[in-house]
Amino acid sequence: MNHLYTYPIKSLRSVPLTTALLTPHGFPYDRRSMLIKIHPANGNPVPRSKSHLIGNLENMTITYYPELALFLQSIDEEKGVFTVTYCPPDGEKKSLEIPLEPEVSKLQAIDVRLHNSPAKGYKMEERVNAWFSSCFGYEVMLAYLGPNTRPVLGNLSPNAVQNKSAGSKSWLSSVASRLPNLTGAKVQEEDGVTFADLAAYLVVTEESLQDVSSRFSDGTKMDVTKFRPNIVLSGSKKAYEEDYWGCITITSNSKATEIVLTQNCARCVSINIDYNTGKAATGEAGNALKKLMKDRRVDKGKKWSPIFGRYGFLKAASEGDGRTMTIAVGDRVEVSKVNGEHTTFGKSLDWQGTVTLLIIE
Question: What sequence ranges are listed for the domain MOSC (predicted)?
């Protein structure tokens, strides 16, 4: 286990962790908040993404709002806050402290929806919304999930009950809503997700990251956080070996738990962003997506998108809860199930994983 990351506000910069609590809904604080642009109510909104527009409210993601990369995040659990620091390339930095767990009884309840997956949320207090609005130069609000989660569409989770939500214009939700149970795992509680796109966890490897860097002729090193992972592993025999992983077992302090890897993560132009400027990168780094298009379109269900990383969920325990455990950088990870073929986004795979002896750290 090389790196662990969480993202308190969706699409802002990552927070590196040395330890993290595994829960069915992801790491604590991971993407429990999301910025929303408020378009004028009496006009015709001109959103950057129509699929993210609900009424006059537009979900802000780094794919369409690359300037989100200019916001750093850090967590102080002792104080119960996280700090957001705005770092414009040609201006002064400024910071804001936000409670990790705001008192929702004092906040306005709102309905939120991401990729056609709805949830109840809360509009953060005015001082927070005004601060972000001053950074962007237009009105925004910060939506907080509180104790709520969004339903996982279409049984992307191996533990979920079949979701019957209607489709949507979003490619993520239109495909995810058709996903069957991929593992045959025992059905227990339905796993919810936060404002992460589709799953509780995203797993990538250093070996695959090195392959991306090797494609840049100018010596550029790819920043792994552009792929927005939660867990970064090393020790694979070759790049993209994780394409076939069906399950990993993490052992920490003599305790073990499993993360079932159900689907591939299809990539978009967000990996081309320069995090220092909040704009599309120039040079080789600005062509990262194009370079992966050459040979990484390996998922027949997303044939126009290159694949990097695997979506995962905690496997349901056979007895009791047993689905929370603290893990740490340096923990041992075993690839405990391997698929005989690539998974296809939107289709099931006969879940006959085989045990492998591969051990990665």
Answer: 172-336
Question: Which amino acid appears at position 203 of this protein?
Answer: V
Domain locations in the chain?
31-147, 153-360
Q: 17 - beta bridge partners?
A: 4
Q: Which residues of 249-264 are buried (b: 16+ CB within 10 A; e: fewer)?
A: bbbbeeeebbbbbbbb
Predicted confidence (pLDDT) per residue in 29-38, tens digit: 999 999 999 9
| 3 state DSSP class of 348 | coil
Q: Could you read off the pLDDT of 290-346 as tens digits, one per residue?
A: 999 999 999 999 999 999 999 999 987 644 455 679 999 999 999 999 999 999 987
**CB–CB of 267/163 below 8 Å?**
no
7, 83, 101, 177, 290 from 14: Cα distances, Å: 5, 12, 18, 28, 24
CA distance 106 to 95: 23
Which CA distances in Å does 285 have to 37, 209, 291? 28, 13, 10
